[in-house]
Amino acid sequence: MRRVKVWPEVWPLRVPFVIARGGRSEVGVVVVSLEEEGLTGIGECTPYARYGETAASVQAQITSLLDKLEQGMTREQLQHALPAGAARNAVDSALWDLESQKLNSDLWRLTDVVRPVSVEMAQTVSIDSPEVMASGALALWQNGARLLKIKMDNALITERLVAIRAAVPEATLIVDANESWHSEGLAARCQLLADLGIAMLEQPLPAAEDAPLANFIHPLPICADESCHTRESLPQLAGRYEMVNIKLDKTGGLTEALALAAAAQAAGLEVMLGCMLCTSRAISAALPLTSGARFVDLDGPTWLAQDATGALDFRCGKIVLSEGFAQ
Ligand SMILES: [Mg+2]
Question: Active site residue: 5, 102, 149, 247, which one?
Fold first, then answer.
């Protein structure tokens, strides 16, 4: 019989994290542990208010499965027992972790993906004045980051992006508006981004109002984040987006995320891999998806004042995987 535990944790941030929806100074996560045969699988998720989730609602969802989990519920059964979202991700991740340990293996081997020595990833510049954003971008560039993700709201677009581009002329820049822009003037705004050499624009319009994206030829790729949760989202994205941002907290875990990545690529969409604010536990569960992703955006733990035990080796702009890893 499995022993199941579920608990919330609050992790303070090193500095405030500001996006179009507002700022925050800490992140609440929910952790699941599954103990079986002397082994313990761990999974973590970040409940997200944008998707109607709280730590309490996510804990309640997981607790509703307690009996079945204790009796050995499988990952396949889990996919039908909970909807896509943070709760299913925490359990799915814990089941993958338990499976890895039982087989004396790891996620790379279980998913048939070759483990790289390191993974290049984006470092995020959160919303501030043009000057502060530009100096923040320059500091990340000087510390080794080559891909920067610029958070944006609906103000000072030109001022902020021109200042940042001037500070880091050679950096690859991606912009995330988190649904804060409007369809009026969007084509011109996209042209501005293209002229500044921005490599991609993430979720400019609200998910429920993204139809106007089909009305003009995009001068740069547009990526669906809030508009793309699982494979069920894909039919609505055609003609509007060229890329999808896959996050385990949206797909409800690696199981559906792998299926979504394959289906998206088969539909001609490029893949980006993202995360919520979280600890290394949540990032570890997503690592096999870095293979085949055009952009990897897994810097959540770098915003924490302190990461969880067994933290991944984050350097500025990359995760180093080669050291201290059991073969
Ligand atoms: Mg996003």
Answer: 247
How far apart CA 45 and CA 63 sit, in angstroms, is 14
Going residue by residue through the chain, which has 327 residues, state the pLDDT in tens, using 9 for 90 and above. 899 999 999 999 999 999 999 999 999 999 999 999 999 999 999 999 999 999 999 999 999 999 999 999 999 999 999 999 999 999 999 999 999 999 999 999 999 999 999 999 999 999 999 999 999 999 999 999 999 999 999 999 999 999 999 999 999 999 999 999 999 999 999 999 999 999 999 999 999 999 999 999 999 999 999 999 999 999 999 999 999 999 999 999 999 999 999 999 999 999 999 999 999 999 999 999 999 999 999 999 999 999 999 899 999 999 999 754 443
CA of 293 to the centre of ligand 1 (A): 15
Cα–Cα distances (Å) from 233 to 45, 196, 237, 238, 291, in that order, read 21, 30, 7, 10, 22
CB neighbours (10 Å) of residue 43? 28
- Active-site residue identified among 5, 102, 149, 151: 151
CB 59 within 8 A of CB 8: yes
68 is a catalytic site residue: no
Q: What is the CATH number of the domain that holds 223?
A: 3.20.20.120
Three-state DSSP class for residue 93: helix
Range of the domain at 83: 3-105
CA 274 to centroid of chain Cα atoms: 2
| 55, 71, 105 - which closes a domain | 105
* 318 is known as an active-site residue: no
Distance 203 CA to ligand 1 centre (A): 7
Total structural domains in the chain? Answer: 2
- Domain check: are 155 and 286 in the same one? yes
Q: What CATH code is carried by the domain that includes residue 89? A: 3.30.390.10
**84, 105, 126 — which closes off a domain?**
105
Say whether both 84 and 204 belong to one domain: no
- Taking the model in full, what pTM does it have? 0.97
Ligand 1 centroid – CA 165 distance (Å)? 20
- Cα of 71 vs centre of ligand 1, distance in Å, is 37
CA of 234 to the centre of ligand 1 (A): 17
